[in-house]
């Protein structure tokens, strides 16, 4: 039995444990995780770690000693398969049960696979865990052609790393532009052009038929029109399915993730959910119920729960932010752009340093800043305060954003 049991040893789980101790919580805490590793950062798996620029030790969220010094056992390699909200226990695969006072569900999600023939062939990869990244890295030597399915951030980051390694990379995007779900058209077109300039074959409105192989190993991707793209490696990056099965089975309300309130409480007593799997009403998109897949969201929701358990309840209202590194391009985003009805491009995309500023009803709701950290830092206030500056001034790089936020 633990006073606080955290399921999921990822970003949210680690942060919840850490903040509980920072808050002076002296009860027992344990973190159960199904991966063999103690918590590590996931973003480098498609960036510096995949590129070989950072070792695994350098992407650990904290070294092992940190957790032991704070009496936070990391029960790794254990998968929770059921939750009993009445007895207040969880079942670990293999029949072990652990009791809890408060349960924090921080399980993220598992990568979606394209439902086509050949998806079980060797050489078809997803990128969610260290094991996934290691499997890709081990296969690099025998790989000349890579097909990336999905032109979202993870797919594009992997494409950038692998093209830098000299692989011939094709990106297949089903929609008419890359990053279509998360960014406006100018940003999509910019990244599309950047990848093409680096030799990546970006195919939009791509219609995939299946993966083909020989002796159990993928050899190519067949398109709907019959064309076969050679591929010794396929990377599928088309999103995740939130890992909430045991909670939903226990009666928690949810569908796409598990529903939580402003304090990240699920509909079950003393059970909270945070991070990628938590469907919450977000104040930065008009209060719509959404899931956010970002380190910011996992960490900030973890802090909300940890503080609430430690006796300090503050509703979740943190400004969303995110980043993506591709080639020498550092993208930083703040706010949520999906609902925008207007946008301004600040700076010249040809200079590879610019920002896309998103508006709704005249108010700034989000910024995507490419090699433009100053805009990112100064533009934050425009988003948090929902300011409505003049569009011509927003576009004018001679006017610092902090002047418009003053
Ligand atoms: P996770 O960190 O995924 O942790 C969940 C853990 O729970 C996992 O270890 C999982 O295996 C485990 N688990 C699941 N089910 C069970 C169970 N039943 N029992 C026990 N354990 C279980 N975000 C950014 O902000 N910026 C980026 O640049 C960025 N890049 C990314 C690149 C990649 C390749 C990936 C995969 C993600 C990236 N993200 C990025 C997203 C970010 O990593 C996630 O939003 C974040 O990890 C969410 O934290 P979490 O705690 O919700 O889930």
From TrEMBL:
Q: Which domain of life is it from?
A: Bacteria
GO cellular component terms listed in the entry, alphabetical order: cytoplasm
Q: Does the keyword Iron-sulfur apply?
A: no
Keyword Oxidoreductase in the entry? The reply is yes
Domain named FAD/NAD(P)-binding: which ranges?
2-302
One GO molecular function term of this record is: oxidoreductase activity, acting on NAD(P)H
UniProt keyword list: Dioxygenase, FAD, Flavoprotein, Oxidoreductase
Could you say which cofactors this protein requires? FAD
From the UniProt annotation, give the residues forming the signal peptide: none
Q: What is its EC number?
A: 1.18.1.3
Q: Where is the Reductase C-terminal domain?
A: 321-405
The cross-references to InterPro entries, in alphabetical order and at most eight, read: FAD-oxidoreductase/Apoptosis, FAD/NAD-bd_sf, FAD/NAD-binding_dom, FAD/NAD-linked_Rdtase_dimer_sf, Reductase_C
Query: Which PANTHER family does the entry mention?
Result: APOPTOSIS-INDUCING FACTOR 1, RIESKE DOMAIN-CONTAINING PROTEIN-RELATED
Name used for this protein in its record: 3-phenylpropionate/trans-cinnamate dioxygenase ferredoxin reductase subunit
Organism encoding this protein:
Sphingobium boeckii
